[in-house]
Amino acid sequence: MRIRRRRTSWLAPTLVALIACAALAGEAAAATSDAQRFVAVGWSDPVEPRGWVQRFATREPWAFDGDAIPVGRNPTLRFAGGRLYAVSDLDATIVEIDCTSWSATRSYTLRAGSEPLDIAVVAPPLAYVTTRSSSSLLALDLETGAVRSALDFAELDLPIGALLVPGMMAIDAGRLFVQLSRFDALAVDAPGAAEPSGFVAVVDVATEKLVDADPQQAGTQAIALQGTFPKYKMSLLRDERRLYLSASGAFFDEGGLEAID
Questions:
Q1: For 122-178, what is each residue's pLDDT tens digit?
Q2: Using CA atoms, how far apart are residues 31 and 51, in angstroms rounded to an integer?
Q3: Could you give the CA distance from residue 198 to residue 230 in angstroms, rounded to a whole number?
Q4: φ, ψ for residue 205 (rounded to 5)?
Q5: pTM value > 0.70
Q6: Which uninterrupted H or E stretch holds 15?
Q7: Could you give phi then psi for residue 238, rounded to 5 degrees?
Q8: Phi, psi of 147 (to 5 degrees)
Q9: Rounded Cα–Cα distance for residues 196 and 255 (Å)
Q10: Which of 24, 125, 164, 212 is the most buried (most CB within 10 A)?
């Protein structure tokens, strides 16, 4: 089941870029004390070509707690297993931060120009990474730093000639859910160009194989979204067994929030 709420986005891309990319790292408090709850906030330095990550206390006096840690520019933050990961698409780096000691423990460098978008830690040392430059899902060994191609989303049954860009991810019950944005090989405003569309691919982590979302059709299918292409992090409500995401596309695109059963 997919539920769509139609709406028009009014936030300009420049404004969205100015809002610091933040991740709630308070899950660490489940295994520690309430005094260690915090929100991690990442931002790009307005002067120097680098990014920063700093934690913000969730109780009075409502101030930053701990030093700012240098990371790559335009960081996207992910929390897993007591570690915070800052993914920089501009610098093709991933910085691992220990939330307890609040210090960078190591850094991973991907191929220049690969533009990594997201990291999903399955079970250390295995993590998956999506990049804007390739339709492949990358597997990253968090111990050795080795990177390999786990699978290619081009194996999905999609129209020939489309540009396929993987995006944000979510993990649940041995399945990896990956946002896919499909763009026509022609320019968006070119005559005959198809409108951008969105999908969610499902990967069986144990076999690293794509799961067919619609066995009634020939080939391997992804979950087709009703709005335009997806973006931003997805939210998984385990009690409801629902995965929520934004399929709102670009500036003034038609789209909205969708729920996947």
A1: 999 999 999 999 999 999 999 999 999 999 999 998 766 678 899 999 999 999 999
A2: 29
A3: 6
A4: -65, -35
A5: yes
A6: helix 13-18
A7: -70, -35
A8: -125, 135
A9: 11
A10: 164
